[in-house]
Design brief:
mainly alpha, elongated
């Protein structure tokens, strides 16, 4: 009987799982990061066009739609991780990693566009990539779908890092 009760107390109930208000808050946080990033790079379109870019560089108009989708998936992934099958195991570390990668995401834009510090931006995006991989691993332990939702973001950050490196090399 004691084992049954302890199992019952470990299982999250519908009331203990984060609901829609939490999802809306996570979306607001992610899109606030996007808005802050855009403020730090108000003339990013002109800066990007003026740079020598590698042949695999996308057109400038592509960044907005891609990031709009990615920030949405970053928020939904966090929400799903919070709603993981065991409410207590790994929740806090997963969300700390999620917060760290989001802060690193925010820090990249001013380094690259406002400061024109392409080398520092590359070092920073490598840290972002590492934090993101750690977040994917932590989310996998919470809920596999949450980790899968971060994979397009990880692919984009990998691509962005290669683009950052190419721009750094070509413009140094």
């Amino acid at each position: 009987m004691a084992d049954l009760l302890s199992e019952e107390t470990r299982r999250p109930t519908a009331r203990s799982r984060p609901g829609w208000p939490t999802l809306l808050l996570l979306l607001a946080v992610c899109y606030a990061v996007a808005a802050l990033g855009s403020l730090a790079a108000a003339d990013s379109g002109d800066t990007y066009q003026a740079l020598d870019r590698p042949p695999w560089a996308p057109p400038g108009w592509l960044f907005g739609p891609v990031w709009t989708v990615l920030y949405g998936t970053i928020a939904v992934a966090a929400w799903l991780a919070l709603r993981g099958s065991d409410e207590r195991v790994g929740r806090r570390p997963a969300m700390i990693l999620w917060s760290v990668q989001l802060a690193l995401n925010l820090a990249w834009t001013p380094l690259f566009f406002a400061a024109d510090a392409y080398g520092w931006a590359f070092a920073e995006i490598c840290l972002l990539w590492l934090a993101l991989v750690a977040t994917v691993v932590a989310f996998t332990r919470r809920r596999r779908a949450a980790a899968v939702l971060l994979l397009p973001y990880a692919a984009w950050v990998t691509y962005a890092a290669s683009l950052n490196l190419g721009i750094w090399v070509l413009n140094s």
